[in-house]
Amino acid sequence: MIDKKDQRIVAIVWIIGIFVVWELSAFLLKDVLHDPMASTKLPYPHIVAMTFMNNWKTLLEAGAVTFSRAAIGFALGASVGILLAVIMSLSKTMERIAFPYLIVSQMIPVLGLAPIIFNIVRDMNVSRIVIAAYITFFPVSVNMLSGLKSVEQDKKDLLFSIAASKFKVYQKLMFPFSISYLFTGLKIAAPMAVTASILVDMLGSQSGIGVKILYALYSNSANIFWASVFTSAFMGIISFYIVIFAERLCLPWKNATPRKDGVRA
Length: 265
Hints:
Blueprint: H1 4-32, H2 38-41, H3 45-54, H4 56-90, H5 92-105, H6 110-121, H7 124-149, H8 153-161, H9 166-201, H10 209-218, H11 222-250
Helix pairs in contact: 3-11, 4-5, 4-7, 4-9, 4-10, 4-11, 6-7, 7-9, 8-9, 9-11, 10-11
């Protein structure tokens, strides 16, 4: 089993490898093939890094606007998803009624839904939050429901046999059992919520990292465009690892490293 030190080494090797391949590809495109659009198609990564360093304050400020709204929407969508999962787990009838609507709701493309939401609420910040929540609730609801339904019936019967109420059964058994499933849904939803918030930025917002990307495209500022794209990617990665950090706090035993004698460290 690969330990944490080896994982870090592998990650560093991958990062260096990607940087080298990208640098060589940019060199081939610009200085060997002499493509006039080379700087737009694939700029040198060191130039993108320099652009980020020169504009880091404005990029991070724009990213913070988008990220904060995505975080609020993520929390709201996760809450709705958990509530829906609990309701569906309590009643098979409710599950049969609600689940098809959940599926249908995900058939609506975000790019089509976002202008509708904006026209209703007439507020860009609220639109970001609503769309991020919309993206979040489905994977959270589905994974949470899967966890609640995975609890063995004999364990529930045991608690009912000692006169435990349904609330106690959920509190003592079903919620603790399903929390790992919940975090699976949260890890899927977190980067998606950030992406949704960025898409809403492009609908006419005055601030946000999506605005930076859009303006860079219109003004043909390739370096700013790529720096903004990497800022967006970094935001998605950060959101994912925030959920992982929360998972480690809530489920410390899940990430414990097993020793050779079988005892977890």
